[in-house]
Each structure stands twice: as C-alpha cells, then as structure tokens.
Amino acid sequence: MCEESDATLIARAKKEPEAFGALYDRYVDRIYTYICYRVGSDQDAEDLTARTFYRALDHFQGYEDRGAPFSAWLYRIAHNLVANWHRDHSRRKMIALDDLVLRAPRRKGPAAKTEKIDEEDVLLDAVRRLAPDRQQLIILKHVEGMTNAEIGEVMERTEGAIKSLYHRALVALREDLADEWEELR
Amino acid sequence: MGSQKATTAEAEGTTESASVAQALAAYQEGGGSSHAGSHLSDEDCAELQSLLQIGHRLNARMAPLRPSPAFRESLGDELVREAKHRRLKREKRHRIAVISAAVAGGIVSIASLVGGIVVLVKWLRTRSEARQASTA
Which of A9, A10, A29, A32 is the mutation pick for testing B, counting most B CBs within 10 A? Predict the structure, then answer.
C-alpha cells in the first residue's frame, strides 16, 4: 500500500483532524530526536516536542506548500522553540542534572571501560557548545542523514552555504575537542 | 605591499578551505568515495582526513532517538482531539456568521419592504388630498 504524500495528507488534514494525527506520526520521532540532542533532557524534549506540534496546529490552516518539505516547516518551529528555551534557561542559570553528570571530573585509575563513554559524552558536549545553526546542521546531517540540499531547505540557505557551514562546524569541533581528547588518552 | 600579501594569503586560505569544504561534501554525498579529495594538496588532504575522522565519530555517536511510547501515543491522541475541537469551533463560527448574515439580510429586506409601503401610503394620501382639494 503506497504511503500518502505529504501534500495529500496536508490537504486532508485541513478538513479531517485524524489526518493531522497521521502527519504527527510521520514526523514526531525526527522532531523529538532533533530537540533532544539540542536540549539534552528527555523531559524538556517531550515538552518542546508537544509545543512544536501544538504551534504547528495553531498555524496549520494557513500553511501553504511553497516547495519546501513539510518537515522543514516543523524543524523551523522546533528550532525557534529550542532557541527560546536556551534563552530562558540561560537567564535562570539552571544547571540540568544531565549537565552535572556529563561535566563531573573524570577519575584516574582503572577507567579503561569508561573511556569510550567519556569520549562520546565529550563529543556530544562539544556539539552542544556549537552555535545553534551549526548544531542544527550537525544533527540533521549525522542523525537524520539529510543531504546538504535538504538541510538547505530546512535552514533556508543555499547548498553552498551549508557546505561551508558544515566545514566550519567540524573545524570548530576539532579545535574544541583537541585538548579534551588529549586528556583522555 | 604588506596588506596586499595579507589579502592574498587570506584569499588563498579561503580558496583552500573552500576546496576542503567541497571535498568534504563530495566525500559524504558520494558515499565515501576515495576520489573526493584527489585534487587536494597534501596539506589539504591531511585537513580533510582530520575532519572526516570527526564526521565518523559523529556518525558513530549520534543515532536517532525515540520518545517513550506512552508520551508518543498520548500526545498524538491529544493533538487529534484538539484538532477536532478546533474544527467544531470553526464550523460553529461559520454557522453563526451565515445565520447572522441571513438575519441581517432579512432585517434589511423587511425594513425595505416596510419603507416601501410607508412611501406608497404617503404618496396615495398625498394624491387623495390633492384630488379632494381640486374637487373642492
């Protein structure tokens, strides 16, 4: 059985609420993944995922297909909500428990088993320290497997701009990680 | 002269990083083709390899995540309920608008009819009075 195209589903969803549910099912995992990597907490990711889809519902009747995929619109909503979340959290200067765990000092000694885990946590930490647009690109490329052209549609930039941004993001990660990975060795 | 050299060096740096950026994109979207960096200098090749290593680590670490099934299902149900509720509200608003327009139209029609009758009665009275005056 062929899956309905986004365009067909969107047209149906403007009249039939159940079809909006089908759109939600199609994209909820990807939006949740994106948000979870950006905020680092399951609970906050759930909250922001819900807000993303409620906001999409608020503006859904006015949504028009302008050539970009529907997912690009959802990612933009999610990105803006995450940006607001970071702004609000930086004001409150809250430190999430996850951050405390990730930034705990590494113990010397028989820690060979945990070195791999530490390196991975260090990598994710470094990704979260990137500028928001670089984080977005890294997640869309390395988690969602999107091409530069597809990422360009989400981020409203040209493919060339995405290539350059990706290059700069990797250079920034390498510089940030150089000392930390050296410490782990 | 010094500033010209700095500008040239900067332009060369920009060109080199553009080449590495292009090679990086070609490698990734070409499915890891080893020919992606074949045109690069040794230095740029080393740069490309270093960045590709970071890319490989990102691929290894960053996997798709899933919300809990309970959350996924409850939010989905909630959204469909809310979408239904909003549709009913829109339909109700539309019905009220249609009825209001019909009532307003009806009032205007009745008012026009009454106005027309009043004008006719006045005209008939005026004509009758004029006739009586001319007979007298």
Answer: A32
Give the C-alpha separation, A40 to A121, whole Å.
11
Is residue A35 a contact partner of residue A84, using CB atoms and an 8 Å limit?
no
ipTM over 0.85: no
**d(Cα A22, Cα A13) in Å, to the nearest integer?**
8
Of A34, A19, A13, A7, which Cα lies nearest the Cα of A141? A34
Identify the CA nearest to A141 among candidates A116, A166, A175.
A166
Tell me the C-alpha to C-alpha distance, in Å, between residue B23 and each of A166, B17, B27, B34, B69. Answer: 12, 10, 6, 10, 41
Rounded to a whole number of angstroms, the distance from the CA of A59 to the nearest CA of chain B is 12
Using CA atoms, how far apart are residues A74 and A30, in angstroms rounded to an integer? 10
B92 burial via Cβ count (<10 Å: 0-12, 13-18, 19+): exposed
Determine the length of chain B.
136
Contact between residue B80 and residue A60 where contact means Cβ atoms under 8 Å apart: no
How many interchain CB pairs under 8 A, A with B? Answer: 105
pLDDT tens, position by position, B38-55: 678 888 889 999 999 999
